[in-house]
Amino acid sequence: MFATMNNIPYLLGDQFASKFTWFPEQASTFAAENDWLFFLITWICVLFFIPIAGCLFYFCWKYSKPKGQKAESNTAHNTPLELAWSILPSFFLVAMFVIGARSYLNQRTVPEGANNIGLKAFKWGWTMDYGEGIMNPELHILVNEPTKLSMRSSDVIHSVFVPAFRAKKDVVPGRYNYMWFEADVASEKVSAEELEKAKRQFEMNGGGVWDYDEWQFTPDGYRFFDLYCTEYCGKNHSVMQTAVVVHSTVEDLNAWIEKVSKRPSDQTPEAWGEKLYNQRGCAGCHSLDGSKRVGPSFKESYGNERLLSDDTTVRADEDYIRNSILYPKKQVVKGYQPVMPSYQGQLSDDDIASIIAYLKTVSDYGPKAAAEVPKAEETTEE
Ligand code: HEC
Ligand SMILES: [Cu+2]
């Protein structure tokens, strides 16, 4: 039976959970103190709960009367007893407050020289900003160095939670918020063979969004800690997760940043565009199969006639797609809310060109259609 109990954290998807606790691994300088205080408060509560509940049942039994017999009035009281049970527990209360407040202040005071990373939350994903226009949904940080996140939201209230770091903070639209932590456990790298095998499987399944839960490592082969949204923010709140990778050296971190900063020379714009499409949250609001999500499907977008909210029509050409990505509120497709976040300053020219190249390949009205469908069936002036 114990074996089963111990397996539950694993079943819940947290492979780092230790055998002796319900909590995930402690991987930051906050973790040990946090857990210690949590158990202190829990045990104090248990210590009070058991005698109080015991007295309750005992008195129920002791002073119960047979049916019909009148209850005695008892208005007397015992001053020393009442003082004792008021004053003694208040020492515990003050102690819990002082320890909790100290730990809270520590978590709110960013150490000087912390590495700053921007974080943007949106429905439904995360974009980390490493400076110089380098953005990625994964959070990559250095071990044993404080990291500060400068956080903002482009729509509703979200909340960042990294359970292994015991760190959590709301991200509120219209203002910057911040949090910091210092990871003290570096992420391991899986073997080249394991990564190769996963990549092959991934290709065989048709590519798309990398399944972190299934592989338990990132597409670059790093084990990771989970980062969740922990403030209910709409339909896809539950999938608003990403990976936190802790690098053991600056060189390793910089090599990763360099790698993701731009399209590798051996990758086609279409392939890079598909990657960005899946990484930057487009897939959360747009489908490829014609189904309507928060935004229109790309199956009938590129090359098609679009009806806008002001009842004008426009051909979805490269320029239109580009403008839709940079200034989404300018031309709003009829029947949709203007909720798409602008990607201005977040995607380079090459990134946008790559996305457009990719969107062409998935549209029924793109080059694919021109090649396959006989012209006569394609006329739109009917
Ligand atoms: C929060 C949801 C959301 C996200 C994320 C999002 N979009 Fe949109 N998008 C919309 C909505 C809603 C519309 C329709 C309203 C409008 O035109 O602004 C739209 C419209 C578009 C259009 C015009 C489509 C057409 O058929 O006319 C393009 C192109 C587009 N989005 C591209 C993207 C790309 C590329 C990304 C990722 C880099 C992205 N969107 C991310 C919600 C989203
Ligand atoms: Cu959220």
Structure characterization notes:
- It is built from twelve helices and twelve strands.
- The protein is an alpha+beta fold.
- It folds into three domains: 2-63 and 77-108, Orthogonal Bundle (Helix Hairpins); 115-261, Cupredoxins -  blue copper proteins (Immunoglobulin-like, Sandwich), CATH 2.60.40; 269-378, Cytochrome Bc1 Complex, Chain D, domain 2.
- The strands form three sheets. Strands 3-2-1-5-8 form a five-stranded mixed β-sheet, with no helix packed on it. Strands 4-10-9-6-7 form a five-stranded mixed β-sheet.
- A hairpin with a 2-residue loop joins strand 1 and strand 2.
- The structure holds heme C and copper (II) ion (CU).
- Residues 158, 229, 231, 233, 237, 240 line the site of copper (II) ion (CU).
Question: What's the helix and strand layout?
Answer:
Blueprint: H1 2-11, H2 31-62, H3 79-108, E1 115-122, E2 125-129, E3 135-136, E4 139-142, E5 146-153, E6 158-162, E7 167-171, E8 177-182, H4 192-204, H5 212-215, E9 225-229, E10 241-247, H6 250-261, H7 269-279, H8 282-285, E11 305-307, E12 313-315, H9 318-326, H10 349-362, H11 367-372, H12 375-378
Parallel strand pairs: 1-5, 4-10
Antiparallel strand pairs: 1-2, 2-3, 5-8, 6-7, 6-9, 9-10, 11-12
Helix pairs in contact: 2-3, 7-10
